[in-house]
Fold this protein.
Amino acid sequence: QVQLVELGGGSVQAGGSLALSCSASGDTDSIWWMAWFRQSPGKEREGVAGLYTGVSTYYSDSVKGRFTISQDNSKNTLYLQMNALKPEDTAMYYCAAAYRPTWPAWSYHIRWRATATYNYWGQGTQVTVSS
């Protein structure tokens, strides 16, 4: 079992920055794939950024160039640095984790953004961007 706890949400004006962190505990050695998702009221949960430990990172087009996903060497903490925030970035942000992928590498750029890929989820942290 793995537990995920997100920190760092809050309110900021458009153009500002926020940094989120996700602390993982439990059987973290089994986790190789982590991601940030977000969900606004009435919308589906969408992938924001994904990371396959030591291999690759992925971003949605809406945040590419503004957000950066990273992980500490122990794999116990996942980060999301969010810059140049926009009102449309307002959402609940969730951390997600998955075991070492068994699917082919060519599918990583698709799989990372699918909620079904992930085995564990945090409770979420709210990010609000005002105009």
Q: What stands out?
A: The chain has one helix and eleven strands. The first helix runs from residue 108 to 111. The first strand starts at residue 2 and ends at 7. Residues 88 and 129 are 8 Å apart (CA to CA).
